[in-house]
Specification:
By secondary structure, the chain is mainly α. It is 77% helix and 0% strand. The protein has two domains: 166 residues, Up-down Bundle (Growth Hormone, Chain: A); 184 residues, MFS general substrate transporter like domains (Growth Hormone, Chain: A).
């Protein structure tokens, strides 16, 4: 409901392009820190549901604080606090959902399909974007802040219900000698490191698309209406893979082959976008986002549940998100120089990143019981 409209909202509060750039950039930096920190705290206390609820409540309160804020510095402080409290929500929710989906996190042992959870989120994003556009047209930009905060309040109520209905004890991480010690055991696992690298390369390859696709399309004569449709096709691809294709494909081929398919889809998608900005060609490759993001995410989540100890589940999710976000941030900076120099040919560089990831996917095999027994099998 809110993310597409935040830049415009801050602009109406008097922020110029430079100030807006500083605010958004620092918001990203704060999220990179707060996500891993909250994940580590949640694991250390064995209170992932409680930390999730607290983060949601705080983000809703800080969102409301944006309404009376007028000066740059007040907007700056409140927005950074809101970004810091909202960032851990997805990683904590993923950690909880993955544990419950496997059947290990509930007393009955019943399983459900994790991809349906993320698919519902992608579908809600499409619906929210369409509805928010109508609300802004009728009421104005300030209404988005109220809707955003209201949805967070509803989410907090659901999180509170999760606390009340918790059917099992949450595993607690062992005390660490230093704040960084909780990350070291995960980074010593070879499969975890390879997973991070593959995810960073494929997800980071979206940098040129996310920053310059609409600009390239506009230069090719594609108007806002068609651009919105093309962008929606990519999110629709997510929904289809999360709900329909992904779970079945994962069950048949496993995470290594699924990651290879995601890398191959990325190569095809970026090569086509480097060669053409024709609407038909774009309409064919935009749904491949379902593979370059959704299928890759399912593969990574399946491996995370197998390789990350349960007591470090939130920390593992946070490191995974941090690796992808940091790589994407650096590649987005590089994308500006690449696009300025080469234009659409910059997509060839993104295809090369996917090719590098493809060469690493055979090593993403699922751990075996023998690996768990061997002191060096996963190192």
């Amino acid at each position: 409901m809110a993310s597409p409209f935040w830049p415009r909202f801050f602009e109406t509060r008097g922020l110029g392009p430079e100030e807006l750039g500083v605010l958004l950039a620092l918001g990203t930096a704060v999220r990179l820190v707060s996500g891993p920190f909250a994940g580590r705290v949640a694991d250390r206390l064995g209170a992932r549901r409680a930390v999730l609820a607290i983060c949601i409540v705080m983000s809703g309160l800080f969102a409301l604080g944006l309404l009376p804020a007028e000066s740059f510095w007040l907007l700056f402080v409140v927005s950074l606090c809101q970004a810091a409290s909202l960032a851990p929500v997805t990683t904590l929710a993923d950690a909880l959902a993955l544990r419950e989906a496997s059947g290990a996190g509930n007393a009955t042992g019943r399983r459900f399909e994790y991809g349906w959870v993320r698919g519902a989120g992608s579908a809600a994003f499409i619906a929210g974007t369409l509805i928010a556009g109508q609300i802004v047209s009728l009421v104005g930009l300030s209404s988005i802040v109220l809707v955003h905060a209201g949805l967070l309040v509803a989410s907090a109520a659901v999180a509170y219900h999760l606390i009340r209905s918790a059917s099992s004890h949450e595993e607690r991480a062992e005390p660490a000698a230093s704040p960084l010690a909780g990350f070291a055991p995960l980074l010593r696992i070879a499969l975890f490191r390879r997973l991070l690298l593959v995810a960073a390369l494929i997800l980071g390859s979206h940098a040129v698309h996310d920053a310059f696709a609409v600009i390239r399309w506009n230069a090719a004569g594609i108007g806002p209406g068609m651009a919105s449709l093309l962008w929606s096709l990519s999110v629709a691809g997510e929904v289809i893979v999360f709900f329909l294709i992904g779970p079945t494909l994962m069950a048949r081929v496993g995470p290594a082959a699924a990651a290879a398919i995601a890398a191959g889809a990325g190569i095809l998608r970026w090569v086509v976008m480097a060669l053409s900005a024709a609407p038909l060609a774009l309409a064919i490759v935009q749904p491949l986002h379902g593979f370059t993001f959704a299928l890759l995410h399912l593969a990574c989540m399946r491996l995370l549940t197998q390789v990350v100890p349960p007591q470090l589940a939130a920390t593992g999710q946070a490191i995974y998100a941090l690796a992808a976000a940091t790589t994407t941030a650096f590649l987005t900076l590089a994308a500006g120089a690449l696009y300025a120099r080469w234009g659409g040919a910059a997509f060839f560089v993104m295809a090369a990143l996917c090719a590098a990831a493809l060469s690493l996917t055979p090593g993403l095999r699922e751990p075996t019981p023998a690996d768990a027994k061997s002191p060096h099998g996963n190192r």
